[in-house]
């Protein structure tokens, strides 16, 4: 009895959340003595999932599913869960997965817990920790149904390599015409920027940058690194940056490979949201800034001198 994950992809490429979900599932499966099966929809490089411990992939390829359709995708996950006789189904907390997960749960007559952070607190009874009120509070939720659906909070666990030998199987679920009564004809991206949720590297700025006019140097460094940009809470409160970039306890959680904090003091509420990042590089003019206590690498100095120099060096790679 495997654990099933829905490995989300966009334009054929897996999203970072798919690898985070696989990493999480692998750990849970190890604790439960079982394996990880993934169901994919029109995804390209299936073998990538083997890096993160997925043992089996049910591949769905269908022109009908080329655009996201919550009801139809939920039905695919439900049929995959039934085929594999799965008792635990894991989804992420992207907009698409948040839309699908309750539909999957209803179809499987399963209990559903969203915003799960961390590994199950207990497997018998089955209890998970969830965040609430934008990370201001946590609760422990017990799911008593035989089949359980969990929505893992984005960037709450991290991505860990754990190679497995993967088997692939074509899966042709039956699609219900009634689910296709509304069709998205075309989509258009408003920005080509890397999002915080998908980024391997995040370049983040604080009040030490003095004003919105100085963000160009962070944008440039982020562009050279293929990174997303983020900011501290006061920066978005002041309107220097959009609220979507606010990270920390009350903002978005970040669990990247590299988090670069520029001119951010390292208040506990900021650290709470980014501490799962693997490597933290802090640039701050104050050697006593609290952020240095949790940094892996620290540069004491003026951001306006250091960031452009660092960017020039990075461009040379
Ligand atoms: P500051 O504290 O003003 O720090 C600026 C830093 O820049 C200083 O360390 C300074 O030495 C450095 N600096 C100045 N000039 C330069 C320079 N030229 N070069 C390099 N460094 C320089 N904050 C968050 O970020 N996220 C949250 O989710 C969050 N949630 C909160 C929830 C609650 C309930 C509360 C009470 C607070 C929350 N805060 C949050 C706010 C948090 O407590 C801090 O006030 C905030 O993180 C500080 O932002 P900052 O580091 O950008 O600014």
UniProtKB/TrEMBL annotation:
The keyword DNA-binding does not apply. InterPro entries: DHS-like_NAD/FAD-binding_dom (IPR029035), ETF_a/b_N (IPR014730), ETF_a/FixB (IPR001308), ETF_asu_C (IPR014731), Rossmann-like_a/b/a_fold (IPR014729). Residues 3-184 form the Electron transfer flavoprotein alpha/beta-subunit N-terminal domain. SMART domains: ETF (SM00893). It comes from the Bacteria. GO terms for molecular function: electron transfer activity; flavin adenine dinucleotide binding. Gene3D superfamilies: HUPs, TPP-binding domain. Its cofactor is FAD. Pfam families: ETF, ETF_alpha. FAD binds at residues 207, 263-270, 284. The keyword Transport applies. Keywords: Electron transport, FAD, Flavoprotein, Transport. Binds 1 FAD per dimer. SUPFAM superfamilies: Adenine nucleotide alpha hydrolases-like, DHS-like NAD/FAD-binding domain. GO terms for biological process: fatty acid beta-oxidation using acyl-CoA dehydrogenase. Belongs to the ETF alpha-subunit/FixB family. PANTHER family: ELECTRON TRANSFER FLAVOPROTEIN ALPHA, ELECTRON TRANSFER FLAVOPROTEIN SUBUNIT ALPHA, MITOCHONDRIAL. This is Electron transfer flavoprotein subunit alpha.
């Amino acid at each position: 009895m495997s654990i099933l994950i829905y490995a989300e992809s966009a334009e054929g490429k897996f999203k970072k959340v798919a690898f985070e979900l696989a990493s999480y599932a692998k750990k849970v499966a190890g604790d439960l003595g079982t394996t990880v099966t993934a169901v994919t929809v029109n995804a390209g490089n299936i073998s990538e999932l083997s890096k993160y411990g997925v043992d089996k992939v049910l591949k769905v390829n269908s022109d009908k599913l080329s655009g996201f359709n919550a009801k139809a995708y939920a039905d695919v996950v439900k049929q995959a869960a039934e085929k594999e006789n799965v008792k635990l189904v894991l989804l992420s907390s992207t907009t698409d997965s948040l839309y699908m997960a309750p539909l999957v749960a209803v179809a499987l007559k399963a209990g559903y817990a969203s915003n799960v952070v961390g590994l199950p607190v207990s497997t018998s009874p089955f209890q998970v920790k969830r965040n609430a009120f934008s990370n201001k509070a946590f609760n422990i939720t017990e799911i008593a149904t035989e089949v359980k659906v969990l929505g893992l909070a984005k960037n709450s666990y991290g991505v860990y390599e754990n190679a497995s030998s993967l088997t692939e199987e074509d899966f042709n679920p039956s699609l219900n015409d009634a689910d296709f009564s509304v069709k998205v004809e075309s989509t258009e991206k408003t920005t080509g920027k890397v999002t915080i949720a998908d980024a391997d590297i995040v370049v983040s700025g604080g009040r030490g940058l003095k004003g919105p006019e100085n963000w160009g140097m962070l944008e440039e460094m982020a562009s050279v690194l293929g990174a997303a940009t983020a900011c501290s809470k006061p920066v978005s409160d002041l309107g220097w940056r959009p609220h979507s970039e606010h990270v920390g306890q009350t903002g978005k959680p970040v669990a990247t490979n590299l988090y670069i904090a520029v001119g951010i003091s390292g208040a506990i509420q900021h650290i709470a949201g980014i501490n799962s990042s693997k490597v933290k590089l802090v640039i701050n003019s104050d050697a006593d800034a609290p952020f240095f206590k949790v940094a892996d690498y620290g540069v004491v100095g003026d951001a306006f001198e250091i960031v452009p120099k660092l960017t020039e060096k990075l461009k040379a790679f």
